[in-house]
């Protein structure tokens, strides 16, 4: 039996989670006909999963504490194993309560907390919407936190202080193209670096 509720407030949502905690397991839909999972099923055909545990923070986020989170560089979302692959918990919660996510859409957080699994904080949107949210809320990786960055903030400050070298010379020195140096000097990239100290 899959527990589904229509959400009309936190009260009903809390009832849903109390039932899950009491039962002690989450049961996935549409697993009964999957032969690979027969050994992982209960006698009544339900699929056994690790209980979901969470704490409620001051923002009303249900911060999952029972499953692991990916690294902050990878988004910090709560992950779990399902059907031989890693999935994200907030998408699972959305699917269980509201149905499958339509193709081309993603589950977004209105709270900006990637560890939150509160269904009232989850909405659908496109990947473009998700990226726009990240930029508008200033959550995107910048500077040396971008995993492909060859420069550090210290390098950028050195580049900005060096008024005599050409872009090509500095590019060779730091292992980047001259255009990257030009964009730093023009303030197109690395905008978050405090240029007043230069």
Structural description of this entry:
This protein is α+β, with helices and mostly antiparallel strands. The chain has two domains: 10-136, Homing Intron 3 (I-Ppo) Encoded Endonuclease, Chain A, CATH 3.90.75; 143-197, no CATH class. 30% of the residues lie in helices and 11% in strands. It is built from six helices and six strands. The strands form three sheets. It has a two-stranded antiparallel sheet with strand order 1-2. Strand 3 (79-82) and strand 4 form a beta hairpin. The N and C termini lie far apart (64 Å). Residues 1-10 and 22-39 have low confidence and may be disordered. This is HNH endonuclease. GO terms for molecular function: endonuclease activity. It holds the Pfam family HNH_3.
In brief, what are we looking at here?
This is HNH endonuclease. The protein is of the alpha+beta class.
Characterize the overall form: elongated
Spatially, the strands of the biggest sheet line up as 1-2
Secondary-structure element sequence? HEEEEHEEHHHH
Low-confidence segments, given as residue ranges, are: 1-10, 22-39
* Total domain modules: 2
Q: According to CATH, what is the class of the largest domain?
A: Alpha Beta
As for the CATH topology of the largest domain, it is Homing Intron 3 (I-Ppo) Encoded Endonuclease, Chain A
Calculate the mean pLDDT score and round it. Answer: 75
- Compute the CA-based radius of gyration: 23 Å
How far apart the termini lie comes to: 64 Å
CATH architecture of the largest domain: Alpha-Beta Complex
Described by strand count, sense and barrel closure, the largest sheet is: 2 strands, antiparallel
Keywords: Endonuclease, Hydrolase, Nuclease
Organism: Paenibacillus cremeus
Domain HNH nuclease: 90-132
Protein name: HNH endonuclease
């Amino acid at each position: 039996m899959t527990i589904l509720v229509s959400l009309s407030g936190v009260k009903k949502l809390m009832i849903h989670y109390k039932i899950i905690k009491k039962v002690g397991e989450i049961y996935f839909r549409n697993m009964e006909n999957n032969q690979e999972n027969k050994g992982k099923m209960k006698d009544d055909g339900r699929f056994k999963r690790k209980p979901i545990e969470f704490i409620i923070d001051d923002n009303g986020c249900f911060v999952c504490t029972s499953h692991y989170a990916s690294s902050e560089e990878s988004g910090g979302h709560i992950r779990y194993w399902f059907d031989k692959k890693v999935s994200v918990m907030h998408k699972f919660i959305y699917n269980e309560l509201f149905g499958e996510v339509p193709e081309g859409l993603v589950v977004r957080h209105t709270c900006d907390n990637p560890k939150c699994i509160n269904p009232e904080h989850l909405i659908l949107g496109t990947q473009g919407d998700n990226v726009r949210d990240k930029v508008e809320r200033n959550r995107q990786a910048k500077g040396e936190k971008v995993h492909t960055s060859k420069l550090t903030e210290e390098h950028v400050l050195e580049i900005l202080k060096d008024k005599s070298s050409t872009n090509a010379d500095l590019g060779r020195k730091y292992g980047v193209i001259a255009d990257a140096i030009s964009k730093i000097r023009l303030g197109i990239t690395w905008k978050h670096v405090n240029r007043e100290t230069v």
